[in-house]
Amino acid sequence: MFRVTVLGTAAASPTRERGLPAVAVEREGDLLLFDCGEGTQRQMMLANPPLSNPRYIFVTHMHGDHLLGLLGLIQSMALQNREEPLHIYGPRGLGEMIRYNLEALRVYVPFKIIVHRVRRGAILSEREYTVSAERTIHTNDSYAYRLDEKKRPGKFYPEKALALGVPKGPLWKRLQGGRAVKVGGNRVTPAQVMGPKRRGRSFGYSGDTRPTKELKGFFRGVDLLVFDGTYGEEHSDKAKEYLHSTVVEAAKLASEAKVGRLLLTHLSARVSDYEELTRQAKKRFSRAEVARDFLSVVLPLPE
Amino acid sequence: MFRVTVLGTAAASPTRERGLPAVAVEREGDLLLFDCGEGTQRQMMLANPPLSNPRYIFVTHMHGDHLLGLLGLIQSMALQNREEPLHIYGPRGLGEMIRYNLEALRVYVPFKIIVHRVRRGAILSEREYTVSAERTIHTNDSYAYRLDEKKRPGKFYPEKALALGVPKGPLWKRLQGGRAVKVGGNRVTPAQVMGPKRRGRSFGYSGDTRPTKELKGFFRGVDLLVFDGTYGEEHSDKAKEYLHSTVVEAAKLASEAKVGRLLLTHLSARVSDYEELTRQAKKRFSRAEVARDFLSVVLPLPE
User: Fold this and answer.
1) Residue B303 is assigned to a structural domain of this protein
2) Would you call B64 and A105 a contact, using CB atoms and an 8 Å cutoff?
3) Distance between B44 CA and the closest CA of chain A, angstroms
4) Which domain holds residue A172?
5) B234 three-class SS
6) CB contact at 8 A, A94 and A62
7) Best interface-test mutation with A: which of B42, B62, B67, B115 has the largest number of A CBs within 10 A?
8) Which of B143, B177, B193 is the last residue of a domain?
9) Which residue in A220, A252, B121, B239 is a FRET match for B99, CA 20 to 30 A apart?
C-alpha cells in the first residue's frame, strides 16, 4: 500500500479549514512525514485512519510553519515510550534547534533522534525505496524531496517454468527471488521465466519554492507531485516576491515533467475561490487539483 | 464583557476532540491568554466568535504542552503586522526560549515582545484589573494565576442627588466619576449620593499542580476557577506521582475556597468517561463540571 495524505494545506498561518504544511506517506507499513507544521500531531489523529509513529521526517526548510509541530510530536512519542530511532532529515540548523528545545523543555526522550543534514542528491536508501533531495528557491538552504520505490522483479510466467521442467514449489519461489535453479542437468535462470523488471511508485514534494528547471528534472515522471501553489495567477508578482509559485506555474512544471497527478498546496490566506484556482491549474495540466486537508491518494502498483 | 473560553482541555498530547492547554479571557476589549499549547492559534480561530491578538499571555510552566503554540502565534501576529507590544509572563527560561527560536527561524517581529519573569504575588496592575501569581506544585518554577477586577464605584442614587440640590447633567457624571461637586454654597461628595464600592469579577487558573493550602487561599472567592483535573479518583496514585490533581481534589479545594464555579481541565488521555468524572466532582462541589474545548462562560457584573 502506498498512500499519500495531505495533512495541512495552509501557508504561513492556519485557517479554520486548513492546517499548516505536512504530507504523510504510508508505504507498506512505513510512515514518512514531509514537513511538520504546528498541529501536525493532531492532524495525524484526525486523519482516517489515524496516523502515528513516523519512521522518517523530512523538513524542507527552516520556517516555523513547516516544522513547529516537530517538538510536540516528539514529546508525544516520548510519552508513548517509542523505542524505534527517529531519523529526521532537514537543512542546516534543524538538529541544533531540536536539541535546544528538548533541553529547554526538559523532555526525556527514550528513543534515539538522528538528525541528518540534507544536501542535494540521494539521501536515504531503504531496502525497497530511496529518497532524494533537490534544492529549491526559497531560503538559502531549502529542499524538495522525492521518494522512489526500487524496481520490482518482473512478472513470473508459470507456463515457461513448467516448459523448462521446473515443477511448482520451492524452485519457483527461488526463481521469483532472482536466483537460478538446477533441474536434472539443466540450469534455469530467472530471466528465462520472468518478464522485465517492473517500475515502482514515486512521489514528490516541493516544499516552498519558485518553479525551476532543476525541479522539473527532479520530479520527472513521478506518479504524484505535491507542489507549492501559494497563489493564483493574479498574484504572480507576489509569488516572485516571496519565492513561491502560482498554481499555473506549478501546473506548467508538472505538465512538462510528465507527472501522473498534481496536488497544489500551501495556499495563501488571500485565496478564497479555490475553484477558480483549480480552473487556472487545469488549463495547463488537466490532472491538477487544489488539495484540501486530509485529501488522500492511493498510488496503484504499476503493472 | 468578561468571557472565559477554554480553548484546549487535553493533558500532554492532544486527542481528536481536545486541544492542548489554553484559556482565553476577554475583558472589555482586552484578550488575555493563559497557557498557549500547540495549536492554540487555530483554536482561537475556531472559537465562536474567533479570537485574535492577545494583549497578555501568561505561561504556567516550562512544559511543551503548555507553551509550544507561542511561537506560531507570534509568527502569525508578525505576519499580520501587529504593532502593539506583547507582554508575556512566565517562569525562568521562557524569554530565552522564545528569543532562541525566533532567531533560529529568522522570524521578523515588527512589535516588541516583553517577557516578564513571574514570581509569586502581584504581577500586573492594569487600570481596571490586576493579575497575581501563586506557586504550584508541579515543576520547580510553576505558577497559577488569578485575575481580579478592581472595585467599581457604588450604585448612584439620583433621588439622593436631587434631594441635595444637584441637578441632572454633568455634575452627576462628576459625582459618578468619584469627584465632589459644589452646588450653591454646598459641597456634595460621592459618598452622599452613591452606595458602597462594588466588587469586580474574578477568574483563576491553576495550570498543573497538586492541590495546596496556598492555592486554596489564593483562589478564595473567585467567580470562576479553571483547575487541573487530570485524573479521576481511581487514579489518585498517578495524580500524586505526576504532581497533578484528581477531579475530587480539585472540587474539594474549590468548595473550601468558596469559588463560584469550577471547570476541570487538563484531562488525561486515560479518561474516557467524562460523565463519571463530573459525577465524582459534583459530589464534592455541585458547581463543578468537566470542561470541553470551546466551553465559554460569561461572568455577569456583580450588583
Assistant:
1) no
2) yes
3) 9
4) 158-193
5) helix
6) yes
7) B42
8) B193
9) B121
Mean pLDDT over B276-293 rounds to 97
- pLDDT, tens digit, for every residue of A240-285? 999 999 999 999 999 999 999 999 999 998 888 899 999 999 999 9
Residue A282's φ and ψ, nearest 5 degrees, are -65, -25
Q: What share of chain B is helix, strand, coil (3-state, %, to 5)?
A: 30, 25, 45
- The 8 Å CB, 24+ separation contacts for B245-248 are B245/B206, B245/B209, B245/B210, B245/B211, B246/B280, B247/B277, B247/B278, B247/B280, B247/B281, B247/B288, B247/B290, B248/B280, B248/B281, B248/B283, B248/B284
Residue A68 and residue B63: Cβ atoms within 8 Å? no
DSSP B20-62: -SEEEEEETTEEEEE---TTHHHHHHHSSS-----SEEE---S
Amino acid present at B211: P
Bridge partners of B238, per DSSP, are: none
Sort out which chain B residues have CB atoms less than 8 A from A81's CB and list them: none
Question: Is A12 found in the same domain as A139?
Answer: yes
Instruction: Specify burial of residue B121 (Cβ count, 10 A radius: 0-12, 13-18, 19+).
Output: exposed
Identity of residue B89? Y
Task: Give the distance from CA B275 to its chain's centroid.
Answer: 25
- Angle (CA) B43-B46-B52 rounded to 5° is 70
State percent of chain B over pLDDT 70.
100
Asked if A127 and A270 sit in the same domain, the reply is: yes
E strands within A46-125?
56-58, 86-90, 113-117, 121-125
How many structural domains are present in chain A?
Answer: 2
Q: Is A22 inside a domain boundary?
A: yes
Given B13, B63, B107, which is nearest A76 (Cβ)?
Answer: B13
DSSP state of A74: H
Q: Is the pLDDT of residue B184 over 90?
A: no
CATH of the domain at B96: 3.60.15.10
Confidence of residue B271 (pLDDT cuts 50, 70, 90): confident
* pLDDT confidence of residue B91: 98
The C-alpha cell that represents B281 in the structure block:
466532582
Residue A303 lies in a domain: no
For residues A211 and A273, membership in a common domain is answered with yes
All residues at 6 or more sequence positions from A95 whose CB lies less than 8 Å from its CB, including other chains: A88, A115, A117
The answer to whether residues A121 and A163 belong to one domain is: no
What is the average pLDDT score of chain B? Answer: 96
C-alpha cell at B241: 506521582
ipTM of the assembly? 0.92
How far from chain centre, in Å, is Cα B166? Answer: 41
Minimum CA–CA partner of B62 in chain A: A105
> What residues of A are in contact with residue B39 (Cβ under 8 Å)?
38-39, 42
Looking at CA atoms only, how far is residue B204 from chain A in angstroms?
25
Question: Would residue A30 count as lying in a domain?
Answer: yes
